[in-house]
Amino acid sequence: MIDLRAASKRYRTPAGEFPALTDVDLHVARGELVAITGKSGSGKSTLLNLISGIDRATTGEVTVNGVRIQTSSERTLARWRGATVGVIFQFFQLLPTLTVVENVMLPMDFLRQRPVSRRRPHALALLERVGLGDQAHKLPAALSGGQQQRVAIARALANDPPILTADEPTGNLDSETAGAVLELFRSLAAGGTTILIATHERDIARVASRTVALVDGRLAKGAAA
Predict the structure, then answer these.
(1) Which long-range contacts (CB under 8 A, 24 or more apart) does 180-188 make?
(2) Assigned domain for 182 exists
(3) What's the whole-model pTM score?
(4) Separation of alpha carbons 85 and 52, rounded Å
(5) Is residue 225 part of a domain?
(6) pLDDT tens across 71-122, in order?
(7) Burial (0-12, 13-18, 19+ Cβ within 10 Å), 203
(8) Is 224 within the bounds of a domain?
């Protein structure tokens, strides 16, 4: 499902090039739930961005669900991402002027694969799944941080993507809600969804199929790739 070969990412800065990732080889099968661990600045978010097509490797190859990211056009990647990868951002990225259910409908409106008449019912069903059915018609500002994170998870599932990437998805949740979210991830993986989670949380590493550790942009020695 996911294949990185000697993938490196370097950013240009006023002080020169910064190597965010260096020679990463990573292979993830369908239905795996992989925890990506490491200190802040170790390259976890960059790795997720390469896999989701938000960013491109400077060198090396990144192939996701049969698509070579580095050779695809931005237009092709945008549509591919909408159908293939559900992205859960660390800071929610909800649109403040849209209701909760409208935020969840956005990916469906962009991709246009689901009939218009079925988009709102599907969004409401997803909100029920994350325990927020009764918050559907509120604006994001009326919700707690944990509730907004659950909305972001529902939105990422809107187009039934085969892959989910999540950047610190439980960092803003209380322990009970975090446990429910982890159970949801585990259920999705059991159903065949491939999930990669960048995290500091040990609880996530415990429910993962395996853990990949990054140190200064490189896979730690002995890390299962």
Answers:
(1) 180/131, 181/130, 181/149, 181/150, 181/153, 182/207, 184/129, 184/130, 184/153, 185/33, 186/33, 188/157, 188/164
(2) yes
(3) 0.90
(4) 6
(5) no
(6) 899 888 988 999 999 999 888 899 999 999 999 999 999 999 999 999 999 9
(7) middle
(8) no
**Residue 206: closest CA among 1, 2, 33:** 33
CA atoms within 13 A on the CB side of 120: 6
Cα separation, 77 vs 80, in Å, equals 5
Tally the domains of the chain. 1
Residue 39's domain is classified under what CATH number?
3.40.50.300
Question: Phi, psi (5° rounding) for residue 73?
Answer: -70, 160
| pLDDT tens by residue, 158-186 | 999 999 999 988 877 788 888 888 888 99
